[in-house]
Each structure stands twice: as C-alpha cells, then as structure tokens.
Design goal:
The protein is of the alpha+beta class and 217 residues long. It folds into two domains: 127 residues; 65 residues, OB fold (Dihydrolipoamide Acetyltransferase, E2P). The chain is 46% helix and 17% strand. A five-stranded antiparallel β-sheet has the order 3-2-1-4-5, with no helix packed on it. Helix 1 runs antiparallel to helix 4. The radius of gyration is 23 Å and the shape is elongated. The chain starts with 8 loop residues before the first helix and ends in a 6-residue tail after the last strand.
Length: 217
C-alpha cells in the first residue's frame, strides 16, 4: 500500500502499526479506536486538545471497566493506552495530524477484519525525537509541487572544496554539492545561507541549488 495523500510515509506506517497492534488486542479495540477519534475530533477546537486526549486515555485506563462500553478489564484499556502513547505522544501538539493518523488506523482495522494481519511496520526508534519528526515532515514537503525554480531557501554549508570551488549544502536533510566559482570566497563553511533553486527533477524534488547573495535579497 502507498501512503495516502496528506500523510507522510512515517505517519502512514504509524497508522498501520496502531491498527496492527489494536487488532491483536481483540474486536473491541475498533470500537475504542472510534471513540478515541470521536473524542479528539470533538475537542480539537479547544485549548490543548492533544494534552486532553492523553488525559482521556489515562482516565480510560484507570476507569475503563466502569466508563467503557466494551465490558473489558482494566488491563485491556491500559494496553490500548500504551499503544497510543507509543505512537502518538510525539504528535501531542499536532492534533490534526493525530486525527489523520487515527482515521487511517480505523481504515486499516477494517482491512484487517478481512485480510490477514501483516508484520508490524518497522518504525525507527529515533523518530520519538521531535527534531527528527520535524525533519521527516520537512522532507515530505520537498516532494510537493509547491517548490519552484527561482525559490530561495535556507541551507547550511557543510563543506567547501577549493579544488573545483565546490560547496556542499545541507537542505532539510538532503545534501547538494554544487560548483560556486563566482561566490566561493563569500561562502563560509558552517554558515546558514540563502540558496536559490536552479532546477527541479521530474518528480518535483530539488535537483540543483546555487548560493543566493544577500545583496540580491
């Protein structure tokens, strides 16, 4: 399956992983997932919806057997809470992303009612870092049609080579090695500079960039 429009590849895997683990919990998990989606959607317009969502999960884990409708044990609700914490805590301040992920998790669970459950998707552990998550989402933006030739972006100068007057820029996780014979002496290694997109690949991602002098800003 390919990632749905609006989801990054990582978010797509997270939705699959949530559905995968909840499906293994039993049929009542789909009901609880739908209730979680309804709760988050109902409170998405209020202050701190992400924080409130996890408070709701905590209350469910403590009192699920009393307030739930699946007639399950407290251990059952705690196991569900662990799944959500494991995959969604990193999106606590991004409720819209959580809603999209959970919405697709519901679809995945319907799929798994008909077809065998596959292996749990491999999700790198370091994705728990907000910094890495931000980079992954920024990388996703690079493959959209919003980029255009002539657009200027921030880039870090990670290396300079006198031979050939080549400069390596790091731009949202990608490195671009470019010849800069005209502006080589103006570019400081380690600095954050402006670069201009000179050409794009057929898929809309960046092909080449060039240093954009401050005097042209």
């Amino acid at each position: 399956m390919q990632a749905a429009e609006g989801l990054t590849e990582i978010q797509w895997k997270i939705a699959d992983a949530i559905a995968n683990e909840l499906t293994r919990q039993g049929s009542g998990s789909l009901t609880e997932l739908r209730k979680a989606v309804s709760y988050l959607r109902a409170y998405s317009g209020q202050e701190d919806p992400g924080k409130n969502f996890f408070s709701y999960l905590e209350a469910l884990a403590k009192n699920g057997s009393k307030i739930g409708h699946s007639n399950q044990t407290p251990e059952y609700y705690k196991s569900i809470q662990l799944v959500y914490n494991k995959y969604l805590r990193r999106y606590e301040e991004k409720p819209a992303d959580m809603l999209q992920i959970l919405g697709w998790a519901v679809r995945f669970m319907h799929y798994y009612k008909t077809f065998p459950i596959g292996e749990l998707p491999s999700i790198p552990k370091n994705l728990a870092s907000p910094k890495v998550i931000a980079m992954q989402e920024a990388l996703q933006q690079l493959s959209t049609s919003k980029l255009k030739e002539g657009q200027t972006l921030d880039a870090k100068v990670v290396n300079k080579q006198v031979k050939g007057k080549q400069v390596t820029y790091e731009l949202l996780g990608f490195e671009f090695k470019e010849r800069e014979p005209k502006n080589f002496d103006l570019i400081a290694e380690g600095a954050i500079v402006k670069v201009e997109i000179k050409s794009l690949k057929e898929d809309g991602t960046i092909n080449h960039v060039k240093f954009f002098p401050a005097s042209q800003s």
